[in-house]
Design brief:
The complex is a heterodimer of chains A (about 190) and B (about 325). In chain A, α3 packs across α4 and α4 (about 100-115) runs antiparallel to α6 (about 145-180). With about 190 residues, chain A is mainly α. Chain A has helices spanning about 1-55, 55-65, 70-85, 100-115, 130-140, 145-180. In chain A, about 45% of the residues are buried. Chain A starts with a helix and ends in an 11-residue tail after the last helix. With about 325 residues, chain B is an alpha/beta fold. Chain B has helices spanning about 40-50, 75-85, 125-155, 165-205, 210-220, 225-235, 240-245, 250-265, 270-275, 285-295, 300-325, and strands at about 5-10, 20, 30-35, 50-55, 65-70, 90, 110, 120. Classes of the chains: A mainly alpha (about 190), B alpha/beta (about 325). At the A-B interface, α1, α4, α5 and α6 of A face α4, α8, α9, α10 and α11 of B. Chain B: GO terms for molecular function: protein-N(PI)-phosphohistidine-sugar phosphotransferase activity.
Chain lengths: ~190, ~325
């Protein structure tokens, strides 16, 4: 009888431990559902509306204008494109650049789809947890995540620009070693 | 060269399909965008159909030549890119209709969790109905153009009859559409990922694994040297394309670090450099597709993939370092 009891005890412990895993996960889930979800949802509504009111045509014009120098090409354009078009369509703005600069624009734009995501989650909702995963720990401590989001964005502005610019040089290097020539002027179709 | 049609059905737990793929004189290439490795199904498709396979990671081909695209996207983006261009897509992973391009993922163009056993030669009746389906897809395109022109006429209408009324109507309709889109995004991408991550957190916190992770994560993410090392590893050019897909790995590592910050094992100041350290591989799996969106030439893709992998490597560790410098004073004295 005593043996029976011990076995039952082990079984009960095991079962409650097992369900405990899900209870712990469920409380995290419902916490996020009531805090992150409504916030992100309403932000998405506003951003989607703004974007469709401004329209694609204006964005194209802006992209053509920005192709001229590294500063607008790897800082202003990818930042605005990420904000307006989100991931992955932000990359499509690269079609207005000369072939040689497309990889650099890609390098920069892909990073802007993350570094601005803390303040503007509409940019890349599918990969939100790069930001949110870390930010949820910070907010658990009762700290304001906006402070972190702003620094994330600012460091991103500087370093994504540098990243795009560095790619100009790696492209030069790869062109040299493979013997492929890429045009530095825009093809007029 | 003689071409044959094949039929592709979804695997267990997969989504979409069945697709019938019929090579034609112009559309006769298999494009695989799978981070540089070649899935087995590529060889089977080549053997059955007689088409040529092209590694999208090394070069690119005009969209009009692609008969079928093969992706290995567990996350989000690549699943929808080719269906959006009306190109039939096979995913070797079981991803369903999700991601920012979910609306383009339809069973007529997309099938997932496909292995070699899901591919077979199509009989003639199926091949015939496939050409019919092709005609249908082409029919939808002018419709889309019609839609766009409709928006323009709507905009032009504002000239005469009470600009304000039309303006208000347009704003309301725009917001309503924006809300629909937003709810859709939250339902199809954010909430599923939250459920997945919550379960992982539950298992980690509720079981003993959490303590092991804490032991590994705290020294790695709790000081600048560990974070620099993490950033260095993620940016290695031979690893970075493999770490990329759907940013899933980065998101999980981020969540693990977040859990430790929440527990007080890692100082919140390190959240900033950590955000950069877990993501030095940012977009390395996606280079050919991203360049494709820019309508880049094949030789640009060839150069671009290598070039971006190098620049991510050069730029990776400095990013983490600068973020660390910028983190001074963050959450201090709280």
């Amino acid at each position: 009888m005593k043996g029976m009891n011990t076995i039952m005890k082990i079984l009960v412990n095991f079962a409650s431990g097992f369900i405990g895993l899900f209870k712990s996960g469920a409380s995290t889930f419902i916490d996020w559902m009531s805090s992150i979800v409504p916030l992100v949802l309403l932000l998405l509504v506003l951003m989607n509306a703004i974007i469709s009111l401004i329209g694609e045509e204006k964005m194209n014009k802006f992209a053509r204008f920005s192709a001229k120098n590294p500063f607008t090409r790897y800082l202003v354009l990818p930042f605005v494109a990420a904000f307006m078009l989100g991931n992955p369509m932000a990359h499509s703005m690269g079609k207005f650049l000369p072939e040689y600069y497309k990889p650099s624009y890609y390098a920069s734009a892909a990073q802007f789809c993350h570094t601005s995501n803390g303040l503007f989650p509409h940019i890349n909702p599918a990969e939100l947890f790069i930001w949110q995963g870390i930010a949820q720990g910070v907010s658990k401590l009762g700290l304001n995540t906006t402070e972190l989001a702003i620094r994330y964005l600012l460091v991103g502005l500087v370093m994504n620009f540098i990243g795009g610019w560095i790619t100009d040089y790696t492209t030069k290097f790869v062109c040299k070693s493979t013997g492929i020539q890429l045009s530095k002027t825009v093809d007029l179709k | 060269m003689e071409f044959h049609s094949v039929k592709v059905v979804k695997g267990t737990g997969g989504w979409g399909g069945p697709l019938v793929i019929t090579p034609t004189e112009t559309r006769n290439k298999i494009l695989y965008v799978t981070g540089g490795n070649r899935p087995e199904i590529v060889d089977k498709l080549v053997k059955l159909t007689g088409m040529k396979a092209v590694d999208g990671f090394k070069t690119s081909i005009p969209d009009e030549e692609i008969a079928v695209a093969i992706v290995d996207c567990g996350g989000t983006l690549r699943c929808g890119i080719y269906p959006k261009k009306h190109i039939k897509t096979i995913n070797v992973l079981p991803t369903g209709k999700s991601g920012p391009l979910a609306e383009y993922i339809v069973p007529e163009l997309y099938v997932s969790n496909v292995g070699v056993n899901q591919i077979s030669l199509a009989d003639e009746a199926e091949a015939a109905s496939e050409t019919h389906a092709d005609a249908e897809t082409e029919n939808t395109e002018p419709e889309e153009k019609f839609d766009t022109s409709k928006t323009i006429t709507q905009q032009q209408k504002t000239g005469f009859i009470g600009k304000i009324g039309v303006g208000v109507g347009k704003v309301v309709a725009t917001f309503n559409q924006a809300a629909k889109q937003a709810v859709n995004t939250v339902l199809t991408t954010i909430i599923p990922f939250m459920a997945f991550v919550s379960l992982i957190i539950g298992i980690i916190n509720g079981s003993g694994i959490g303590k092991v992770f804490a032991k590994v994560m705290t020294p790695l993410a709790g000081n600048i040297w560990g974070l620099l090392l993490l950033g260095f590893i993620c940016s290695l050019p031979f690893l970075s394309p493999l770490l990329g897909p759907g940013a899933v790995i980065g998101q999980i590592i981020g969540t693990l670090i977040g859990v430790e910050i929440g527990k007080g094992n890692i100082a919140p100041q390190y959240a900033l450099p950590a955000l950069f350290a877990i993501n030095t591989q940012n977009g390395c799996d996606f280079i050919p597709v991203g360049l494709g969106l820019m309508e880049a030439k094949p030789e640009t893709v060839e150069v671009g993939v290598t070039s971006v992998l190098y620049s991510r490597f050069i730029n990776g560790v400095p990013r983490v370092f600068v973020a660390w410098l910028a983190s001074f004073g963050l959450y201090s004295g709280k």
